Sequence to fold (513 residues):
Amino acid sequence: MIFENGVIRTLDPSLPVVRSLAIAGEQIAGGVGTHETALPGPERVDLGGRCVVPGLSDAHVHFATWAVAQHEVRLEDTRSLDEALARVREALAAAPADRWLRGRGWRSADWSPSVEPTKEVLDEVVSDRPVALMARDSHSVWLNSAAIARADGDLQVPGGVVELDDRGEPTGVLREESCWHFRDRYIELSDDEYVEAMRAGLKLAASRGVTALHDKDGWLGALRFWQRLQAEGPLGLRVWQSLPAEKADELTDVDVRSGLGGPRLRLGYLKAFMDGTLGSQTARMLDGSGVEITSREQLEHYIRAGARAGFPLAVHAIGDLANREALDAFEATRDEWQPLGLRPRIEHAQLLAPEDVPRFAELGVAASVQFSHAPSDRELADRFWGHKVSGAYAYRSLLDAGAVVANGSDAPIEELDPLAGIRAGVLRTLDERPAWQPEQAVTVAEALHATCVAPAWLAREEHSRGKLLPGYDADLVVLDRDPVDCPPDELPEVHIVATMLAGTWTHNPPPWD
Fold:
């Protein structure tokens, strides 16, 4: 197959643009100068002036959770408590009476008036079945009384927060470890439901240009879901799977190493949490506020245990103190992970003290960020972080300091849509508002690198994915126009035409109108 009559961005600095591209089987056969006779009877694809880029990666996605969320009550854009309750009321008619009613996406700081949800107001809408509504950041859950009763008092756990009312009774909101403990133990969701939702999610992801992802649902046991889907046929994208950091010692005992698996599904890295989130006001800050989920000492243990097992560690850190202590832990353990060539990462890195920005590059710790979080969180960051906000979502500063920056969505917190993430990184807005902290914007080329090249590097696949070079996997996306050359105000109009994985179309094969 030969692509011609368009712009092909290889993302390789030695030859960034070519005019033709040949595909042989599952790999790229060549670029400039490739003649039709190089392949026996090649199919010719007329791009008609369109643009081809490497397949898009999502370096931070909770895929199973996102897939299931497509069928839950969605509360992301609710602007008041009453509006959120109305969404729940509307969903009751279609929800099976013998199952949990599940939803997600609320953020009380977005509501006007700004009030915290309670079980009592939810009980007024539905009291005869359990209701669990995850917050937008997935670090808090809002329950009605029927749901709380399922736990029979089993709410408080270390690292968790149970919000209490004036009488000392649970309000219905659980945060951090208490939220996750309740979710994992009491909210009923079968493996079949996850797999069915993921099957549909794969098609949706392909329509958005996704050819690879770094899955964060290791805590959920998502590996078994992926294995079930793979047994049905080749997966429609490549998965770099996380496992909980607590599993490190077990992995050492059974001699499992990072990279185990095949070309579509591999074990990748360990995941830990330092703190909470901005939205739940549990990010761990240098002023002493926030919730500590993992101490620096415990994180050092995870890093060392992971190194013994051959796994790099990815750690969630939101607040400036959480990020500093994560960097301190990587520095203290550098003599154990660095000689092994492991590629550790801090997830989110949302608020950084100025003196900590250069440490990412100095230590060799990647910043696994989500460009779309900046415009989404702007009002909360201004409200809660005030004068510190210049160090928030500091993508330009990280790149200028030489850090590896990889981009993801954090879906379902944001939507799994790499093009939206690229727009957010470049424009620092996703709506009619002016750019927020525009000095931290990245270029389109840098955003593409963070979405294609850096995730492949983190997965130790930099010699086979992320660029359009001979011998690389034929994972690519056809766009309706060249995002690098088009005017910035046209970026919201750039859309996916087709997606290819390993030489096979996974979305909208040609010919195109």
Observations:
- The chain has 16 helices and 22 strands.
- The longest strand covers residues 265-273.
- The CA atoms of residues 225 and 231 lie 10 Å apart.
- The longest helix spans residues 191-207.
